Amino acid sequence: MDSLWTISCEIEKRNKLENDLQADVVIIGGGLAGILIAYKLKEKGIESVILEGDRIASGQTKNTTAKITSQHAFIYNTLLEKFGIEKAEQYAVANQTAISEFSRIIKDNNIDCDFEALPSYLYSTQQTHQLEQETAAAQKLGIPASFTTETSLPFSVKGAVRFENQAQFNPLKFIKSVSQDLNIYEKTFVLSVEGKTIKTESCKIKAKHIVFATHYPFMNVPGYYFARLHQERSYVIALENAQKLDGMYYSIDEKGCSLRNYGNAVLLGGGNHRTGENSKGGKYDELRAQAKGLYPNAKEIAHWSAQDCMPLDNIPYIGHYSNSIKNQYVATGFKKWGMTTSMVAATIISNMISGQETPYEEVFKPSRFNTASVPSLAKEGAKAIKGIATKNLTVSKSVLDKLENGHGGVVEADGSKVGAYKDENGKLFLVSIKCPHMGCQLEWNPDEKSWDCPCHGSRFDYYGKLLDNPAQKGIH
After folding, report:
1. pLDDT at 47 over 70
2. pTM score, whole prediction
């Protein structure tokens, strides 16, 4: 299930870090946020080291729909109502500036990454009231927005909010260019951070500044991000021979779809659900059914899925990891807008490290929540179960007969619950269904053939290999 970005761009491999070292800045995570933070620091004359557990851009970055927009669903009307005009303006300026920064970097470096300036639409086939509210809020904050009933969608709408001068691109082509002169180590999985020391499987790194750009922060204390985030999955199919669109589209309707072009393909997205809550599956089939109705002559050329960290108040956490540790920084909770927010994070964190202020950093401060009462949630919030070794377990024939080839689920083995998957040839794969992060019970996701955590979003393949954090190891 490779994305169009993975199919269209190959990034050269980097070496694994084998020896101890010291650095001014170490960035954990080589997705777009980590790469941009390092790039921005380099522009300021500050060298950094990026540690990536797998390959750079191999996580959420390669699975994005790659829209660079300041239009983030109903964010602006909500911000005005809950936080007031000052912080709403900060959010708007931050994201509008991020779009301009992408354009600047691409132009200055002559990067061929299929960058296109296009309008972005928030639309509904059912109502206009919220769209009109969002239009008014965006205009009040200085964003070039307008309400319209005219779109290039292959169906009629009640209305849409149109944001001008937004953009889309190929994120891997962009990263391939901007990462060329950065200090990057791949296959260097970080196990722990203690003070100014980072430990991997093979070495230790001493750093003056440490940045967590790992999508979901893996360090539970301090910060308690496990109590401030949950994760959601969404699905995409790419279609050839589909109608060309004039921009990017995102639906506010419950089962609406998002659409954008890439070359001669249309990316059709949807099927959102909380990670760990897709036991019935069928998300790709739902999109295929929509595609058949919208584009009957189109051909599917790729499909993939994405995972997003969702913050409590819809605002990302960017800044100091905790008030108690000033040399550690975090960028997380990007919702479904990781491209623009990665640039926002890069600007704020690179300025913090270089001793500069950013006029819009206040609205993103992770310390805006009081976490004094959070530690108890570590115990109360987890659906803890007993972990067991699966190597020598025996599953009864009656249980095996009920599990069809190509399917997975929780079964009884020697009196204990385990996760089982039977491949198309009938071979059985058993794993523990205890998430190693905080002990929650994993659930089978038939669309991805993975074991997903409904508490914090860690994911594992049917072999038990870790796919998505915050867990730091696989299940066996």
Report:
1. yes
2. 0.89
**DSSP tag of 169:** -
pLDDT value of position 188: 97
Provide the token pair at 83: 């936080």
What pLDDT sits at residue 409? Answer: 86
Do residues 475 and 323 make contact, with C-beta atoms less than 8 angstroms apart? no
Q: What angle do CA 44, 344, 9 make, to 5 degrees?
A: 85
Taking residues 6-32, what's their average pLDDT?
96
**Other residues' Cβ atoms within 10 Å of the Cβ of residue 291:** 20
- In angstroms, the CA 65 to CA 46 distance is 31
Tell the residue number behind the tokens 């595609």, with chain if given: 291
CA 341/CA 156 separation, integer angstroms: 31
Buried b (16+ CB within 10 A) or exposed e, 251-285: bbeeebbbbbbbeebbbbbbbbbebbebeeeebbe
Q: Does the structure show a pLDDT above 80 at 70?
A: yes
Buried b or exposed e, range 121-158, using 16+ CB within 10 angstroms = bbbbeeebebbebbbbbbebbebebebeeebebeeebe
CA 181/CA 135 separation, integer angstroms: 41
235 contacts: CB under 8 Å, gap ≥ 6: 269, 270, 271, 283, 284, 287, 303, 304, 305, 306, 447
pLDDT digits 0-9 by tens, 301-339: 999 999 999 999 999 999 999 988 889 999 999 999 999
Count Cα atoms within 13 angstroms, Cβ side, for 92: 25
Query: Cβ–Cβ contacts within 10 Å for residue 402, how many?
Result: 11
Predicted confidence at residue 280, as pLDDT, reads 87
Q: Which of 168, 181, 31, 174 is nearest to 112 (CA)?
A: 174
**CA separation for the pair 439, 179 (Å, rounded):** 37
Contact present, 205 and 49 (Cβ < 8 Å)? yes
Q: Is 105 a residue whose pLDDT tops 70?
A: yes
- DSSP for 388-409 reads ---TT----HHHHHHS-TTEEE
What pLDDT, on the 0 to 100 scale, is given for residue 395?
57
List, in order, residues 6 or more apart from 220 with CB less than 8 Å away: 226, 378, 438, 470
Q: Give the Cα separation of 447 and 469 in Å (integer).
A: 19
In angstroms and rounded to an integer, the radius of gyration of the C-alpha atoms of the chain is 22
